[in-house]
Each structure stands twice: as structure tokens, then as C-alpha cells.
Amino acid sequence: MENMIRLVGPERAVEFLGIRLVGLNATNGTKLLFTLVIIVAGLLLGALLRRLSRRVLRKRDDRRAEFWVGQGIKVATTVLLILGVFSVWFDDPARLTTALGLVTAGLAFALQKVVTAVAGYFVILRGRTFNVGDRIVMGGVRGDVIAVDFTQTTIMEMGQPPPVQGADPAVWVQSREYTGRIVTVTNAKLFDEPVYNYSRDFPYLWEEMRLPITYTADRQRAERILLDAADRHTLKLGELGREALDEMQRRYVLQRADLQPKVYYRLTDNWLELTVRFIVRDHGIRGLKDAMSRDILQALDQAGIGLASATFEIVGLPPVRIDSVGKKGDDAGSCKPEEC
Asked: What are the tens digits of pLDDT across the range 13-26?
């Protein structure tokens, strides 16, 4: 074994089977060993801190606090690892500056998208774009943010309402409910496309339901039915939304918005379309609209108001010729075509 691996020369270079290995000597071997120790210690320290933080914060049931503490631990341990490795391998400040310049230039050229994604991660850490648990649209994906990494954001995808079913990528769930697919989106999308946030600052949405009725129907009664259903299911939401809206107006230049349910009329060729507008939370929209629809249908049946459908008026009809064919010798079938 001693003849196979030897340390030779003043720099104690490693020689294997009589072949000197370039760049490998006793000093570099010691540095490599210290590097492995630093990496293992850093990973163990990060895992221990994350486990302790989850155990403490799980009692508070605060997912956002758990997320931000975890991200802080991840960034801190990464910085410590980088500083530890650099301090082992670059003991000369002049060499460290040169190496950093070369590494930075190489990364900027070869890993442009990765660098942009990491930059997007630090923008996300500011907390002004979205947080974990927020419902967003990012990179064409709708859903709830379930994890954020240095380069990617992980989203639990949700479906799309019928008016936007043609959006790409297409989904089979026609409502804002989970599809079951977990999608990863690069953080670089933060700089290329707008990010739509359903939850930040104002966790409410304005929704609409359309009801077509005939022009002869009792439209005042139909309007009252829509308003009663909206009031019954969204009264408390309007009160809570008022506080959030006041906070938004304090922070941003925002016009006053009406949170009370309201019905709008629209004239069409076939029917009168009544649209009720109301406020809902960013989650649970399908269940709320389902409950409203059941109440509205029951009230319409009691009032004798039916839903309108498309009607067609035939204004012209081509000549119709009918030939009656009977048995041989039958008088019913012996008439001439023009007499039948």
C-alpha cells in the first residue's frame, strides 16, 4: 500500500502507482477533509434548526411563520456553508477576490436563467409578491403556493371557471378547486409575467351569477330573489371585507368599492339577463355559489318564474309536396298528386 500511494516532493504531492496526481497534495487533502466536515455540520445544523422550529411553531398553527422561519434558516445555513468553504480554500484575500470575480462572470454567462430564478427567490422573500398559502396565478398556473425554493415555486393546481376554460394549460375541473396536479414554476417568471394574487392584502373576490328570464316575467320579484340569496350567504363576508378594503385604501391609492350585493340588467335578443354581483372569500367559492343556486331555484319555483331559453321564429317555409301511395285498386291511393 505504501508503494502504491506516496507523498513526494517539498509540497508532499500525492503519487499513485508512480504517477503524480496534479493538484492533489497533503494540504489540499486536509482542506478537502475540512470542507466535508463543514458541509456535513452545516446540513445537520440546518436540519436540527428546522425540526425545532416546526415543533415550536406547529403548536401555534401558523403556516406562514413556519415558512418564513424555515426560509431564514435555509438562507443562513447556506451563507455559513459558503463562507466556511471559501475560508478553507481561499486563505489569501487577493486569491479570493480573483476567484469570486471569475466565478461570478462564469455563472452570469452560463447560468443566466438560474441566476434570474435565484434573484426571483430573494424578491419573493420580501413578502410583497406572495407568501406560502396564497392563491396565485404564476407562469400560467393557477393554484395555492405550497413551497418556495431557491429556483422554483411549487403550486397545487386548481381548476378554472368556464369563462377561462380555453386558457393554457387546459384543465378538466370547471371551478376553483384542486385538480390534484402539483406544478413547479421557475422563480424567473416573476420578471417575465405578471403574478395574480387572490389572497394578498385583500383575500376577497367579486363574483357574479347570471340569470336569464323572459321579458314577461316578474323581473322585480326575480331581482329580489337574487338579492335575498346574495345577502343571506355573503352578509358577514361584506362586513369583514370592509375592514380589509379600508386597510387597502390606507396603503394604496384605491377608489371606494361597493361591497353590497347588486343586480344589473342586460337586454338581449332572447331574454332579460339579470346579473347579481357579490363578494366572496378567495376559497370556497364553488360551495357558496352552489348554495345560492339551490336557494334561487327554490324561490323561482315558488314564484312561478321560469328560466328563459333561446327561441326561434320561422318567417318562411318552402312549398311542401306530399304523395300518398296506396294499394292497387285503392281509391285512397288513386288521387292525382295535385289533388292529394
From this structure: 655 555 555 555 56
